[in-house]
Amino acid sequence: MDWLNAGVQGVLLGGQYALLACGLSLIFGVMRIVNLAHGVLAVLAAYLSLVLVQQGLPLWLATVVVVPVFAALGYALQRGLFNPALARARGRASGELAPLLVSFGVAVALTNLLQEVFSADTRTLPTGGLASAGLAVGGLSVGVLPLITLVVAAAVIAGVQLYLARTSTGRAMRAVADDAGAAAMTGVDPRHMYGVATALGFATLALAGVFVGMSTQFSPGSGDLVLLFAFEAVIIGGLGSLWGTLLGGIVLGVAQTVGAQIDPQSGVLAGHLVFLAVLLIRPGGLMPRSVQA
Amino acid sequence: MSRPVADPPADPPADPSAGASVPAVTRGTRGSLVGGGVLLLVVVLLAVVVPYVVTLGALSSLVMLFALVILGTTWNLLAGYGGMVSVGQQAYVGVGGYALIQLADAVGAPPWAAVLAAGVVGAAVALPTSYLVFRLAGGYFAIGTWVVAEVFRLVTMQFDGLGGGSGLSLTAFRGTDRVDRVAFVYWLALTLMVAVVLGTYLLMRSRVGLGLTAIRDDRVAASSLGVAVDRGRRLVYVAGSAGAALAGALVALSTLGVTPGSIYSVNWTAAMIFIVVVGGIGTIEGPLVGAVLYWVLQQALAPLGTWYLVVLGVIAVAVVLLAPRGLWGLVAGSYQLFPTTYRVSGAGHRRRGEADVTAT
Q: What phi, psi does A139 have (nearest 5°)?
């Protein structure tokens, strides 16, 4: 029963990782940018929500405010920093260098800025008992908040997938991802499309950050692990596949909870080892690029 | 940039009828010699004058500067010449630190030998690791190496013999006079820094270095010209990791201990990235400039907490976007203190550092 419980908790934990990874996967899929600031930005979203809640807003309203703010921030960062970096890199084989280094600079500056402003103390978002509420299902206790997170993750991924597949903006985004030059000739502005993609990625990231803030304690340094877990979910699932990312998040979550069941100290390590094993055995991930993202 | 490599001189300028206008192909210039002389003077001053005029605290702090130069130079080898942005070099800083303490305390090796052996241990660990991380490209290589570094840290903490979560302290210096110890570590660090920088320079001047430059500029083209791409990248990864392990050993030797949280900290790699990017990526001089700048900022802004990292992050973003060749490239132009490229002097050539050898 303990093992079954660990497995169920892992699947639920996977929802959080998948939600975190969704934006990373989207941004990589469209622009081939690996955003090293992904984790600390999620933490920033949690801090912003915390500030709003401390001003008296209910948490759901704070989330409604933070998500569009992050979309705007994403668009601005893309147009202001990442597009120029991409332009710098264009035509050079080592082209990923400039955006990667820019995102790293942002990550380090932001992490330490958060530390100066909010100190290194751990915080958590008040949930009014939601974080500790549980449903009894056949002898297992299923947390309500993790369940909501998993449902939201699946809904967000389905939404992004539908957006990419069905809307004209989504089509343009996929066109830019395939060949920015050719897309530009048909009248699509790749720079704007990149901005929209990052805005969308940041919106999902902000949502993920709020869920992280509700379920666990966070501090300015939490961004590192958030980035690693999101990244592992993306790679385990398969590059550029959003549903794969959901599966990757769940595999990672199960690996961590089952690992912790074996040895309470080793949950995170078990997750890393499963990631490395997937890398060794199936470098393309479990669901390699089934859908163009 | 890829010119001298991508275009083999199909028509070597062997035409004697050109007479007096035969271009002379040289490597160093008088400026390089002068600059090299100044640098030599600085090293001599650091070796024979500085230790006798500054405090012990300043000497320890200079050891950190030398370690930063080693870290920057070897990370530049990876990113600037191998095209591999690793965010996981703290793995080898940690391996070096732990190896030093184990070799000096448990095995009983003399500290200088333990430092060198720690570098070898770093290389030995990096070789098998490279087969794993080379499955990832670009940005995914960056985070993948970070995961590997986390695994190293977590595995290290599992071993009670390595001090678990609280780390180890170095006992080999017990009974050694503090002045002797600090001076010894200082001279050892200075020697290693000079050796690493010179070694990198010689590597980049060699045939291997030329191949690495080609790999960085265009991996496919380099491969089609017969450059052993995988072997070259692996060599760079192993050498760069050995350098990080040397630096980690020096840090452990200087601070008399390691804790898994600090020796495996990603901040080491953050420092390397700033040093290289701000100084000037893909040059040998850049990391020297960057290391000095990082060290000065760290010393000057340390009382203000971590603000120096905020400042450095912003500077790094600005440099990548506005001055991609870094501060050294901004100041020096095509001047090379460590000349690695050939230049053509004679009639009708371009006055550029990367001169076109195939002038006909």
A: 85, -15
Cβ contact B144–A106 (<8 Å): no
Q: Which residues pair with B258 in a beta bridge?
A: B168
Measured in residues, chain B has a length of 360
What beta strand segments (E) does chain A contain?
134-137, 140-143
* Nearest residue, CB atoms, B140 vs list A34, A81, A224: A34
Distance CA A46, CA A68 (A): 14
- Structural domain includes residue A49: yes
What's the rounded Cα separation, in Å, for the pair B319 and B263?
A: 28
Q: In this complex, do A100 and B139 lie within 8 Å of one another by their Cβ atoms?
A: yes
Residue B347 touches chain A, beta carbons under 8 Å: no
Tokens of B152: 């190293």
CA–CA gap between residue A233 and residue A218 (Å, rounded): 20
Looking up residue A66, the CATH number of its domain turns out to be 1.10.3470
In a domain, A127, yes or no: no
Number of domains in chain B: 1
Interchain pair A108, B150: CB under 8 A: no
Among the partner residues A34, A81, A224, nearest to B138 by beta-carbon distance? A34
Kindly indicate the confidence band of residue B128, based on its pLDDT and cuts at 50, 70 and 90: very high
Q: What is the pLDDT of residue B9?
A: 45
**Can you tell me the distance from the alpha carbon of B289 to that of B302, in angstroms, rounded to the nearest whole number?**
20
Residue B345 touches chain A, beta carbons under 8 Å: no
Structural domain of B101: 22-345
For the CA atoms of B304, B309, B311, B312, the dihedral, rounded to the nearest 10 degrees, stands at 140
A196 vs A202: CA distance, rounded Å: 10
Does the residue B350 lie in any domain?
no
Residues for chain A: how many in total? 293
Question: Over the stretch B252-268, which tens digit does the pLDDT of each residue have?
Answer: 999 998 999 899 998 89
Rounded CA separation B125/B355 (Å): 39
Chain B residues touching A106 at Cβ < 8 A: 313, 317
Name which of B317, B294, B321 is nearest A103 in CA terms.
B317
CATH number (domain holding residue B326): 1.10.3470
How many Cβ atoms sit within 10 Å of the Cβ of residue B335?
A: 15
pTM of the entire predicted model: 0.85
| Domain span including residue A64 | 2-117+140-281
**What is the total count of domains within chain A?**
1
Chain B hits for A28, Cβ within 8 Å: 139
Q: What ipTM was predicted for this assembly?
A: 0.86
Q: Which residues of B touch A101 (CB under 8 A)?
A: 85, 273, 277, 316, 320
Say if A232 falls within a structural domain.
yes
